[in-house]
Amino acid sequence: MVHLTVHLIAKSSNYSKTCRSESLQQYLKKLTHLNFSNKSIEDIDDLSMCRNLTVLYLYDNQISKICNLGFASNLTNLYMQNNNKSCIENLSSLHKLSKLFLGGNSITVVERLDELKSLKELHVEGQKLPRGEKLVFDPRSISSLSETLCILNISKNNIDEIWDLAPLRKLTHLYATDNQLQDIQEIETVFRQWSQLRLLNLNRKPVCHKPKYRDRLITACRILEDLDGKQINELSRQFLINWKASKDAKKKLDDGKDIKEQTTNPLTTDFRMGPQHPFAHERSSSLSKPSEYASPALHFEYKETAEEKRSRGINIPVRTGRL
């Protein structure tokens, strides 16, 4: 097992190249950048003598836990992509941390970032997730990052909705390729809240194949400069914005006419069904069956004459009278 220790740092080429006119303690105290990427490191030992450390490169190692960084109050950049991490922990003391790289690990929940009040970039792309699972976000961390985070990379994480990210109103760059987003209406609603968004990449997502996908997102993100790697022409943007404004105004006008017509003509309440009389059902039923209020029918009685009866063999005496 390889541990990152001060002795390992002492054996590094950078320290070996010095004239050794200064002690190791003096060297470590002045150290601001430390690069131990791809060194098969599994654990971080006590590095508290490196109090002025600002940038730490530990990517492409085998680290499973972040530890012993409580001393690094001046750290601004931490690179820990492609390690063996399954969770985010022990970062609360890094109050000056501005860029955090955790891509290519096995993290399932983006959490415990509440104390990182200076974080501007977060990279959690390509997590090695269990089959069928997606990367999720703790609302408390998202809320804490809402006033600082500008760049977010969540590509290749099976994400199918982004409602939880809506509070990130300071975002200027979003990288979210190779996910499962499909609801264009949801995306429009969230993006309208990100008024500072300038770069957006959603390539290789189902939503990219929706009708007028590009037009709808350009009108939703008013200052967007780059969508899926393609520059947005300002003339095209203005045309789409004006077209949408005209369309919305026409719809509002049509809706107003509909409401006015329903108010002035209460008999016409459903334009899909056609005009409907309030007593239509009663009138139609009265045609199919007699009404109890109908006038009685007239009856005519035919009376047969005496001669007609005799002709049928009925003996009718003949009356005689005096003149």
Report what the structure shows.
It is a single chain. It is built from 9 helices and 14 strands. It is α/β, with parallel strands linked by helices and 323 residues long. Helices cover 26% and strands 12% of the residues. The protein starts with a strand and ends in a 12-residue tail after the last helix. Helix 5 (184-191) runs parallel beside helix 6 (213-220). It is elongated, with a radius of gyration of 42 Å. Strand 13 (226-227) and strand 14 form a beta hairpin. A 10-stranded mixed sheet has the order 2-4-5-6-8-10-11-12-13-14, with no helix packed on it. Strands 1-3 form a two-stranded parallel ribbon. Residues 252-292, 304-323 are annotated as: Disordered. Keywords: Leucine-rich repeat, Repeat. It holds the Pfam family LRR_4. Residues 252-261 have a biased composition (Basic and acidic residues). This is Protein phosphatase 1, regulatory subunit 42.
What portion of the residues fall into strands of 2 or more residues? 5-15%
> Segments where pLDDT lies below 50 for 5+ residues?
268-300
Q: Report the biggest beta sheet as strand number plus sense, adding barrel if it closes.
A: 10 strands, mixed
Helix and strand run: EHHHEEEEEEEEHEEHEHEEHHH
Provide the spatial order of strands within the biggest beta sheet.
2-4-5-6-8-10-11-12-13-14
- Mean pLDDT, nearest integer? 83
Relative helix content: 25-40%
Integer-rounded radius of gyration: 42 Å
Gross morphology is elongated
Number of strands: 14
Q: What is the overall number of helices?
A: 9
The span between the termini is 155 Å
The helix/strand class is alpha/beta
